[in-house]
Protein 1
Amino acid sequence: MVVIVRKPSLEEEQEMKNCPTWSCEVSEFEWDFEEEEVCLILEGEATVTYNGEAYPFGAGDYVIFPKGMKCHWNVTKPIKKHYKHND
C-alpha cells in the first residue's frame, strides 16, 4: 500500500473541480481510509505517514490514498482539497 503524489492531468484537474471540498487547520491526527480517496490539494501542506514512510504533499498535488490505509496526518499549513471516494 502506497500513497501516490503527483501533478494532475488537465482532465483530472477539471474533474476534481466538481467534487466536494474539505479543509483542516494545522493539526495532527490518525485517519483510516475506508475507501480509496483521490484528492486535489488547493491550499496548504501536509505529510501523511504510513508504515514509517512519509508522503509530503501541498498545493497543486494530486494525491491517491489507498482503501484500508491507516495513517498519521501532520498538517503543517492549513489545507483545503477537492476529494472523491472510489470503491
Protein 2
Amino acid sequence: LFTEKGIADKTEVEDLYQNISSKYEGGIRWLENNELFPGGRNNEHFIVWMRTGALPTLLKLYSYCKDCTIEPGLYRIKVNSNYPTTHFGGEKSIVVSEDTTLESSFDFLGIAYIVTGSICLAYGIVLS
C-alpha cells in the first residue's frame, strides 16, 4: 500500500549522494553496515533525513501512497525515537496529508519568494 521508493528527489539520488570512491580507504565509514540506514548512501530515508529545511518546522517524507484510498478508522503506528529532541525543546509529529496536483500542499515558501521578488523588482524599477 505505502511505498518508500521515490521519496528522495531524483537529482539527490543520482548526483548528490554517490558511493564513496574506492581510493578513500581511511577514516570511519559509519554509514556502511549501519542498522538505521541499510544500504548506506543509497538509502532514500538517509537522503531525506540529510536534506536541510528552509523553515524552523521541518517536514520529512517517510512514505507515500499513490493512487490509493486510506479508509477512515483507527490506526496504530509504532515510532522508534532514534533522535531525542527533549534537550532543545523539539517535537515530533506524524502528518497524514493529501498532495495537490503540484505535488505539495505546503506552498507558503514559494508564495513568499514570489511576493518578495515582486516587491524587490517594483522597488528596482521605481528607483532606477
Protein 3
Amino acid sequence: MGRVTLLNGRRFKMVSSTASEVDPDAPTEFEYWEKDGVVWGAYTGDTVTVGRFVGTRRDDRVTITYVHALVAGGVATGRSDSRVEREPDGRLRLVEEFRFAGDDTPHVSVCTEVA
C-alpha cells in the first residue's frame, strides 16, 4: 500500500469497541485525509462531541494520536495502531488497538468504510 493516498477522503463508522457500547443508530464517524504517509482527520458521534487525530501510515499500518471531547464531559486522549483490511465488497476496514492516556487497559475497535 506504500505511499499511495489510500485513506484520503474516506469515511468510516465504528461498528464495535471494547471501550464502550456502540450506538448502531448514531455511531462515531471518522473522516480521514492523507498525504505522503501523514494521516489526519476528525470524528464525532455516539460518546464523542468532537475529535481530532494525526499520525502516519506505512503500508497497512496506521499509527495516530487522538484527542476528543466527550458528550458526558471531559476530554480523552490516547494513541492507536490500526491494521487496514479489505472487506469482501472492496470497502476498507480499520481494526484498531488503542489505549487512553494514563490507562494501561488495551482496547480494540473496528470501523468500516461508509459506502
